[in-house]
Amino acid sequence: MSARNQSTTEIAEEMEQRLRMNPQGCRRIGNFGFIELEDSWGDEATILNTARISTTNNRLHSVADFSDRDRRLLYQLLRDQHGTPFETVYFRFRFIAPIFVLRQWVKHRMSSWNEFSMRYRKPISEAYVPDLAARSVDGFAVLDGTAMAEYSALMEQLFQWYEAQYDKACARIELARAEGHLPPKQGGRDPYRGRARELLRNVLPVATYSDVYWTVNFRSLMNFFRLRRKPDAQYEIREYADAAYALFAARYPLLSETMESVLREQEQHLASEAP
Ligand SMILES: Cc1cc2nc3c(=O)[nH]c(=O)nc-3n(C[C@H](O)[C@H](O)[C@H](O)COP(=O)(O)OP(=O)(O)OC[C@H]3O[C@@H](n4cnc5c(N)ncnc54)[C@H](O)[C@@H]3O)c2cc1C
């Protein structure tokens, strides 16, 4: 592999730093992937306090105050799809994933996205490389070692082409400046280099990694888990969804157990209705 560009080195260092700072809240995935549950707002008490707006002003302070009655109410609300109290708890995930995974993930519209832009920085010069488990179906490797060597070489060629073309474009811009054909560089983003980055990113494959902040409420997160942890979801997004779930469940054991019960019952109900 060629040398990493600056964006990639910085992001790799940041992943290492986050793993040191928040080891319980982070996971590495695949050859360059990462996910962290960076922050969350609200908890099971927030949900019940919201749901009881009409019936009581006695607030629960945390899940430690919960009685069996409170636990039962949490379950009933979720089972009976009382949606809005579950929209009052928020999660902020940071993840670094291939663009093809992002395209599936962004379909979960009930959430907020902020993604690394290749207009302002060079791309992450790492592409997803499926390991043996990812490229096997029932133990059969659908892409063999030769195909994988070519796959990696092709990705590498694209990143190298990007770097070489960007260097050439920058050299032409600087020469034109030196000769007085272009205005001197002002503060902020150089529009000429910026346009070169905008165009050159077009050649990058969907296996290229990108970097996202994802902010989502519990109702929508549950929908994401339901759809993307199922066996028919694609292997790669499933890996991220499973990691997101493990991070969430470690921080919210009661909510995750309640969710599991409700999802299991919904699955059983659907299975019993199937022709
Ligand atoms: C196995 C699998 C295969 C898939 N294949 C494809 C595919 O081939 N092509 C493709 O484009 N997508 C595909 N999808 C994506 C899928 O169609 C959904 O877009 C995605 O799962 C997000 O689900 P959602 O709409 O429930 O989530 P969100 O967008 O987060 O919405 C959450 C909920 O809000 C409500 N909602 C949101 N927006 C609206 C609206 N406009 N009107 C009414 N209610 C709304 C709905 O109740 C919805 O369930 C696939 C998903 C899975 C899991």
TrEMBL record:
SUPFAM superfamilies documented for this protein: Thymidylate synthase-complementing protein Thy1 (SSF69796)
Enzyme class: transferase
EC number: 2.1.1.148
Pfam families found in the cross-reference section: Thy1
Gene Ontology MF terms: flavin adenine dinucleotide binding; NADPH binding; thymidylate synthase (FAD) activity; thymidylate synthase activity
InterPro entries, sorted: Thymidylate_synthase_ThyX, Thymidylate_synthase_ThyX_sf
An example Gene Ontology biological process: dTMP biosynthetic process
Listed name of the protein: FAD-dependent thymidylate synthase
